[in-house]
Amino acid sequence: MPTAPLADALLPTPQALTLLPGMGPAVAGLRGVPLGWRALLPTDESAGAARLVLPHLAPRLPHLGDDESFQLRLAADAVHVQAATPAGVQHGLHALSQLWHAARTAGAATLPALQIDDEPCHPWRGLLVDVARRPLPLAALQRLLDGMAAARLNVLHWHLTDDQAWRLESARYPLLQQRASGGFFYTLDQARRLVDEAAVRGIRVVPELDLPGHCWALGLAYPELLCAPAPTEAQRGFGVFGAAVNPDSDALYEVLDGVLGEWAEVFPDPFIHLGGDELEPAAWTRLAEQRGGSLAALQAAYLARVGALLQRHGRKLVAWDEMGQSTALPPGTLLQCWRGEEALRLAPSGLSGRLRSAGFYLDQIHPAAYHWRRTMQPPARPSAPAAGAQAWALQATVGTWQVEGQLWLSGAEARLHLRSSGTLDEWLAPRVMPGAVPWRLQVDSDLGELEFWGPLGDSGGGWLRVGALRQPCDWQPLVDEAPAWPAAPAAGAPVSMLGGEAALWAELVEEPQLALRCWPRALAVAERLWSDPADDRALTQRLAATQRWLVDTGRIDADPAAPLFAALCPDPADRALLRSLALWLEPGAGYARQHAKKRAQAYTQDEALNRLADALPAESPLMAALRDAPSWLAVLTEARQQLPAWRAMLAASPMLAPALPLLDVLADLFALGDSLWTGHKPADAQRRLHHAAALVDEMLPALVQPLQRQLDALA
């Protein structure tokens, strides 16, 4: 079997793969495959089959910093896996399964003789799953563990509490499940079962109790623990609200002590996440003023008491990066950075480590390649613009956010400072695209993939692309008022980068969306966390191959959207037609869908996740599969022929009819694609692409970006 398909089969990329002399094992199967691995590795107990040789290791709980390295050696008569821990053995067996699947897919009779030596670059490789906003059945979480283990992820960050609900039973404080759970909670025994099943797969479970903000549900159970006025009705909306615990309340720390004691009995991991994000400061500012002190002093006192409780129960703190603004973080704290590269750069000294989640939010609709490009170490803040650079001011509306910025342009060099009414505050060095008039820039931002087109006149209208969506923006030249580029902040003592977590927040995620939003994009994050590679060689093909392996071996669901399509189209013929249309669509990029629901006052738990957009993967598999002009022209012809049937189907369904305007857009794009893929470049091609990339029923055409790439190639 050629080496290239083997290398493409392995994701994460291993540290070293060495071909050895001779032949490897026959693809027919192995002798001695453990019972629990027979879905991943074929068995052949005949005398001539190669033996699988594994080390004898006692089961043990996984811990941060475990030796997860492995050596996998393939020869004709035996396959050896060497590792110091059960987790290392599992990683080796998953790599072996990937090789076997690739060989069978290629029709090979044998595997080559080879050796893989591999170990993770980072010991903390996690996936955050939010069950507070919208709950997930325990069985869905259990299924998720198989995919996580296969992807070499080793931490399930279980976000159990938030404004909307408190999802874990408490024996000591039963009002938590009686009044604050929204009618759904996990029992302590269920939590223990999940911890046990995760541990068997080498996965640690780190629970999150989100305080001092995001505590509305806690206030429903124990209002005396919150700053007045405490909530009296359940919070079904999504967003940031004013509820805050009262840091002066001794009762608060008594309840926290009891809850942390329960959690320490259920969750053996030494880390507990205590949130710390998005505290609305008004209530605490009032308290600080009443004390005659500062907000910082109040935060420090709260953290000191919380830190003492954690220490009492033998636990260490994980917190969101806002807590890093305090100087009183307890010893051993890990800071999880989500607010962009600057939060990673400015992590305070004295921490045990940093975790990256910035750029790894799977609930945002970004391409897998965007997540993959977020290297573990944040880049240094770009240097100041060149003297005499032309300066521009930017104004744009992205969903419900107002975005503004300053751009400095000097030849092929650009600098950009972006801010938004959300959390965005970034200093960037965009790439200047050659040959564009007047100019065109590309850069990865915390908002997603960004692309800017400058105004055709001295000022005024340009275009901004966020992910796949585009909207007009305004550029105005700055003559005498361009702000100064700030000096880079002074570097403190280096803080170790322990790893990171992909995050799946649940405003738009229920059980059917869980696999749709995780896979295959979580694989891109998993590779970044495991090997942090520099080369994105064949990333799209490797992601597709790895997803096929996960499906074929039963690690993930083959068709998680099937129930959604069945509900949208009970008739099988219509359902097949809808699926053919869905290949040409994708859900709104970034937070576009969340913003659309906010504008419609539907950003709540009461909004059903039953639209066509809820059934779509983040990226169309058809767009990824098309490689050349003949393939494109063939599918465009077929799609054009289906337009009348699509139109009739959408018009007949009240649920689908809002998507009808997309068909006119698709018809124009199909015609434009015919021109571009036959080498013709219509004069209005760029304008048509800009206007086509707009949100309709929370979706947009998936072929705008492929057509943009073809247009650029013709230019």
CATH topology of the largest domain: TIM Barrel
SS field, number of helical segments: 22
Q: How much of the residues is beta strand, in percent?
A: 15-25%
The average pLDDT is: 95
Q: Main beta sheet: strand number and arrangement?
A: 9 strands, antiparallel
Indicate the structural class.
alpha/beta
- Tell me, briefly, the overall form: globular
Number of domains: 4
Distance between the termini: 40 Å
Computed Rg: 27 Å
In CATH terms, the superfamily of the largest domain is Glycosidases
What is the gist of this entry?
The chain has 715 residues and is of the alpha/beta class. The protein has four domains: 3-118, Chitobiase/beta-hexosaminidase domain 2-like (Chitobiase, domain 2); 124-377 and 495-502, TIM Barrel (Alpha-Beta Barrel); 390-478; 561-714, no CATH class. The chain is built from 22 helices and 25 strands.
Detailed description of the structure:
This protein has four domains: 3-118, Chitobiase, domain 2 (2-Layer Sandwich), CATH 3.30.379.10; 124-377 and 495-502, Glycosidases (TIM Barrel), CATH 3.20.20.80; 390-478; 561-714, no CATH class. It has 22 helices and 25 strands. The strands form four sheets. A nine-stranded antiparallel β-sheet has the order 17-16-15-14-22-21-20-19-18. Strands 7-8-9-10-11-12-13-23 form an eight-stranded parallel barrel, surrounded by four helices. A six-stranded mixed β-sheet has the order 1-6-4-5-3-2, covered by helices on one side. The chain starts with a helix and ends with a helix.
